[in-house]
Design brief:
Elements lengths: L1 E6 L3 E7 L2 E12 L25 H17 L5 E10 L6 H7 L8 E8 L7 E3 L2 E5 L1 E9 L3 E2 L9 H19 L6 E10 L5 E2 L2 E10 L2 H21 L3 E10 L2 E3 L1 H15 L4 E3 L4 E4 L11 E7 L18 H16 L1
Parallel strand pairs: 3-4, 3-5, 5-17, 6-15, 7-16
Antiparallel strand pairs: 1-2, 2-4, 6-17, 7-14, 8-12, 8-13, 9-11, 10-12
Length: 337
């Protein structure tokens, strides 16, 4: 195959050109790990301390490699091109953009991806048109107060108390400022302050994420977060410094590509095993970065009740691998017909 390595850092692109000209469909597999100590007890358990495939990327990669092998053997019957994108850094939602910046989507007409899903049974596929997964952006808030002795709080401006008020106040953005039909999550995930039992610190640092399915809502959230945090701090005579980092946009599945996946899944697995997902997920996926370049869709592949994603005991169900391979192969062939 024609292969490019080192794309977007550690990414790899492989192409299968058919015997006749035609369109190009891309299949994307993500590779990344998480800072979790694996306790699955498997003989193939991670050998790297504090690092494991806790989100199934090893399974995604294996499925894509299986599809490479199968489609390569069918090259003579293919009209068009299948491009395989093996993308690093999905968990930090930066790999897709780097891959696209280095030409991963040049000339691509459509793209598909899958994600293993413990909440579906092996042999099932979860399908949803439109909003599939949320955007994910992050922020840092540094509260600058006045430190001092813990016995004399009246001489201080306590950033811990103020930070606690900021955490609570930020929750009113979703509950009181956004339409209840427009899902929004504002979550503080880190709160760092202090070094001793008897000292009120001078600063506190809060870190968190905000997520939404709506592009316009996403655009307005930084101003809302800034207004709430600065107002709470000002009321207590403190200052705050806020910074934002843009992550990934929402994954919006294209209706035509979603319909194609649904038809192929129904023919392959049976209509009863194609599960129409009732709601979007507030989890994020940088697969959204590819959708700026071509229509595409992501679906969920049933793993059959294994441990939840992002846990020390998660283990990708090998029985799902050939099912994922067959779906990828049939989707690619059907699109290129």
């Amino acid at each position: 195959l024609e292969v490019r390595t080192g794309v977007g850092g550690y990414g790899l692109i492989a192409e299968i050109e058919g015997s006749r000209p035609g369109r190009t469909i891309a299949i994307r597999a993500d590779m990344d790990a998480l800072p979790i100590e694996e306790t699955s007890g498997r003989r193939y358990c991670s050998r790297n301390t504090g690092v494991m495939h806790a989100c199934g990327h090893d399974g995604h990669m294996t499925i894509a490699l299986g599809a490479v092998r199968t489609l390569a053997s069918l090259r003579d019957s293919i009209s068009g091109t299948v491009r395989f994108i093996f993308q690093p850094s999905e968990e930090t939602v930066g790999g897709a953009k780097r891959m696209c910046d280095e030409g991963a989507m040049d000339g691509v007409d459509a793209i598909v991806a899958l994600h293993g899903w413990p909440h579906l049974q092996v042999g099932q596929a979860g399908i949803r048109s439109g909003a599939m997964m949320a955007s994910a952006d992050t922020f840092d808030i540094t509260i600058q107060g006045v430190g001092g002795h813990a016995a004399y709080p009246q001489t201080c401006i306590d950033p811990i108390v103020i930070g606690s008020q900021v955490v609570n106040a930020l929750q009113t953005i979703a509950s009181r400022e956004i339409d209840p039909n427009d899902p929004v999550v504002v979550t503080i995930t880190q709160f760092h302050a202090g070094t001793a039992y008897n000292v009120i610190p001078g600063t506190a640092r809060l870190m968190g994420t905000y997520r939404t399915l709506n592009g316009a809502t996403r655009e307005g959230l930084p101003d809302r977060i800034r207004r709430v945090a600065e107002s709470v701090c000002a009321a207590s005579r403190a200052n705050c410094i806020i910074s934002f980092r843009e992550g990934t946009a929402p994954v919006i599945n294209h209706p035509e590509i979603t319909a194609l996946i649904s038809r192929v899944a129904a023919e392959t697995l049976g209509p009863e095993n194609v599960i129409s997902l009732a709601s979007s997920s507030m989890g994020a996926e940088d697969f959204a970065g590819y959708l700026d370049h071509a229509p595409g869709a992501m679906f969920r592949l049933g793993l059959g009740g294994v441990s939840p994603l992002h846990t020390p005991t998660f283990d990708f169900n090998d029985r799902a691998i050939p099912i994922g391979v067959e779906l990828f192969v049939r989707i690619a062939l059907r699109y290129l017909e």
